[in-house]
Give the backbone structure.
Amino acid sequence: MKKTKTLDANGYPKFGMIDKVAYAAGDFGCNMSFSLKGTIQTFWLAFMMLETKYLSLLLLIVQIWDAINDPLIGSIIDSDRRTYKMGKFKTYILIGAIGLLVAGSLCFIPVPNASLIIKTIIFISGYVIWDACYTVANVPYGSMLSLITEDSGERAQLSTWRSVGSMFGNMIPMVILPMLIWHKEVDAQGNPVINPETGVQVETLLGERVFWVALIMGVLGFIAFMFMIKKITIRVPDNTVKVNEGEKFNIFKAFANFFKNRAAIGATLAAMAMFLGMNSATTATSIMFAIYFGKASLSGLVSVIGFLPMFIFMPFIKKIVNKWGKKEAAAAGTVASLAGGLLMLVFPMIANKNLALVVYILALSIFGIGLGVYTCVSWALMADAIDYNEWKTGKREEGTVYSLHSFFRKLAQGIGPSIVLLIMGALGYISELGTEGQSAATAANMCWLVAGLYLFSAVLMFVSITFIYNLDKKTLAKMTEELDARHAAETATVE
């Protein structure tokens, strides 16, 4: 006998585990592609051997596309009034997911002996195509959270499960990819090739493998997207149209509203801080593990430690949010990350490399505890910021608000690594020498660079959540009450 679904007051299936798992699958799909972004810099630096300043310039150039791409697609979604069989958001996600089947691999076409002009064309065109496909899928996916449920606690759960999907989507390539693409060099007799400067075995990047791994990850991501599209329920499908009905969409006014949205600014700065620290440190960390510790193949496994604490808080996040509030919980988490960032400054001063690695892992664990709390509620903070925009302006602009949030996140993910590449060059890294020819001083400098990036990230996250994001538990309750009353009055007027 077929089980009857329990429906809510509006006739939709009640919010439950299938919504959470499906939403997590969506971010798993996104991150099957996005998690490769950190590998782009390493690939083009260590395998394609682009000079640090030139690669930094290329990264900045493609951010110009980001500046156009994210807000443009977000505004297109907001102003789209057409009716789609599976709904507007799911339709756009499907289009993006199809593109991401192959788009990620275009950034990793392995031609290290090509001319600089050919390399430049491959880098820019591959990135632009990938970024467009990713944005078409990711912007409506992020915007959709506020339309799956209006309940604050359920949104926090969706945010947590999105973080779980993101974590697994990042962990798989983070752990496995370094093991596949880094190779310990040996001589003709099978003896390890040792760098006389650093005293560690030389490790080189097998760039050809990255292309095929990217293709496989595109297929896995597509499967995850299809599961989400089929299983997720949008319970507020027409909210955007109803609130803005009768008024022509004004993209410039929508942008201006975003910059007046203190909650969105605080949540966005915190996300930028996280990416400025962690994502910007990805290339420097890979190089550090290769030339200082001689353990590049294990760099991803060590980095996963920063994600594991999320499991500690995930089962309790709804109770934590209901008791203390989302902003309050996130702020407490940033204090722990700050402590981890300060401890991170210790490991470069330790001469014994094994002990230095232990201290690094300990500092990363403490940083990860705080990040785990923040990550569990980070997307719920942004969903509330979308409501805040409606509360203050009377308009729902999910696509625009979220796309601008996404744009600034991408800006941090683009400008951050660009700056880090310049710093790496200033600290002595020479691309032409590969990982095997770097000096001991350069290897030590990479440790200080990584430590400084994590501390900077923790400080900016703390300031953004504690002093800028303004939706504490009391204010959020007031906003929700007034929006509910407003929606009820609009519904009564229509009837």
Q: What stands out?
A: Confidence is low (pLDDT under 50) at residues 238-247.
